[in-house]
């Protein structure tokens, strides 16, 4: 197979037909006759394509300006694409021709070619179509071709699916804050005949919808967020000095906070100075605000305004995602020790560059570890005494081990025991012991 035939097989223009109309415009200077033009087309087709021309007709049409062009209608033995033939004619003969596949059948193309030329040329064994009528299959061919055109037009006009950016713009324009609000808007538009948004939330799933909501919020707040990041905590505090009180407070919080501090013997200036220094200089030694006291004494109340002024991080849990969001916080607010939060010692070891810790604490004794050595049982405790954290290793004698702990025997070749300490009992013993000491260090 020649290289040009291989090109014809590999060439894939949009359509392939068995009936073509070929037009060679402005051919007045070519010196070709109708028969010569037909022979060039036949040679090009035989060299470029695997299909064969069954019959053809060539005519010559004169222009008003004196020029001329050739028309050639041809019928193939099977459907074939024409690009390889056109390229062959251009490369071999310098002829540029146009192909058309708009005719439903060969009879229609034949009538178009011979309508203005009485000296047209026919192929050998060409049937006489001078007085023939259109084939009975013409209507069916036209209908089939029309249906194909409509389907193609419908495909081209198919509405483009809504992109995530389009949804983000809708969220920003409408001020939507949640997925529920977006679903409500999609339902409303669907009732009005606009289904784009409903199709998006239905087909893309909740993950994409939530990402669109998050992206829209980030784009909306990006400039304000950048401006806020470039401000210090003191600058943010000064901005709130000029704003009215929240929730119609009218200064009640300030008076109440002063009463709590005075009732506990803490000068207002000392407390305010400590908070200001922590906000100004950030986390560091002697610069974290720690409020210690029993329940319901106003600890959280004293630091609650920080949540209004700053973006705060509150009570990290002990799970895998305990620290999510801490890098965005400006103040670590109101830490309270519970069974689900991280240990206080671990909290003190945590580092947030430039951060500020302000928290309250009610529990004064934390059990960190317990273990046996011989007949003795040891408890490692961390506690607060006189407002300062301390760690102690307490030895529990074997005589009263059974009174305070529960023992599980482990039978086997190497017998042993597992001790489950009763934490509350140990804590009470430690508190009673500390209370008896007048000069505890």
Automatic annotation (TrEMBL):
Keywords: Covalent protein-DNA linkage, DNA replication, DNA-binding, Endonuclease, Hydrolase, Metal-binding, Nuclease, Nucleotide-binding, Nucleotidyltransferase, Transferase. Residues 128-141 have a biased composition (Polar residues). Residues 14-127 form the CRESS-DNA virus Rep endonuclease domain. Transmembrane segments: none annotated. InterPro entries: CRESS_DNA_REP, P-loop_NTPase. One of its GO terms (biological process) is DNA replication. Residues 126-155 are annotated as: Disordered. GO terms for molecular function: DNA binding; endonuclease activity; hydrolase activity; metal ion binding; nucleotide binding; nucleotidyltransferase activity. This is CRESS-DNA virus Rep endonuclease domain-containing protein.
């Amino acid at each position: 197979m020649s290289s040009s035939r291989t090109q014809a097989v590999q060439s894939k223009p949009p359509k392939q037909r068995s009936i073509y109309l070929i037009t060679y415009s402005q051919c007045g200077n070519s010196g070709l006759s109708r028969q010569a033009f037909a022979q060039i087309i036949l040679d090009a087709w035989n060299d470029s394509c695997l299909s064969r021309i069954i019959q053809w007709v060539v005519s010559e049409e004169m222009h008003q300006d004196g020029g001329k062009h050739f028309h050639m209608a041809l019928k193939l033995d099977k459907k074939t694409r024409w690009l390889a033939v056109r390229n062959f004619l251009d490369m071999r003969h310098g002829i540029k021709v146009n192909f058309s596949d708009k005719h439903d059948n060969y009879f229609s193309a034949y009538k178009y070619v011979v309508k203005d030329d009485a000296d047209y040329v026919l192929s050998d064994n060409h049937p006489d179509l001078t007085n023939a009528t259109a084939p009975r299959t013409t209507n069916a061919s036209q209908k089939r071709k029309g249906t194909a055109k409509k389907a193609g037009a419908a495909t081209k006009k198919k509405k483009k699916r809504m992109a995530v950016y389009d949804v983000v713009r809708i969220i920003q324009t409408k001020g939507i804050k949640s997925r529920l609000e977006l679903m409500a808007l999609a339902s409303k538009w669907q009732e009005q005949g606009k289904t784009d948004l409903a199709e998006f939330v239905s087909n893309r799933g909740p993950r994409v919808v939530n990402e669109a909501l998050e992206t829209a919020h980030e784009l909306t707040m990006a400039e304000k967020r950048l401006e806020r990041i470039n401000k210090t905590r003191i600058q943010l505090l000064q901005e709130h000095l000029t704003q009215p009180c929240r929730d119609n407070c009218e200064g009640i919080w300030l008076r109440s906070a002063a009463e709590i501090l005075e009732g506990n013997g803490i000068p207002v200036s000392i407390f305010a100075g400590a908070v200001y220094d922590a906000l100004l200089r950030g986390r560091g030694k002697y610069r974290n605000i720690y409020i210690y006291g029993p329940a319901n004494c106003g600890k959280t109340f004293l630091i609650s305004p920080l949540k209004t002024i700053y973006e705060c991080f509150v009570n990290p849990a002990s799970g895998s995602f305990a620290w999510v969001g801490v890098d965005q916080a400006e103040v670590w607010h109101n830490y309270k020790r519970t069974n689900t939060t991280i240990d206080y010692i671990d909290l003190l070891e945590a580092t947030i560059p430039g951060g500020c810790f302000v928290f309250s604490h009610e529990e004064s004794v934390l059990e960190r570890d317990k273990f046996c050595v011989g007949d003795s049982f040891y408890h490692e405790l961390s506690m607060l005494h006189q407002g300062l954290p301390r760690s102690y290793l307490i030895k529990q004698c074997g005589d009263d081990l059974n009174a305070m702990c529960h023992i599980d025997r482990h039978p086997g070749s190497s017998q042993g025991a597992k001790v489950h300490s009763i934490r509350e009992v140990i804590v009470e013993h430690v508190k009673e012991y500390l209370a008896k000491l007048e000069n505890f260090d």
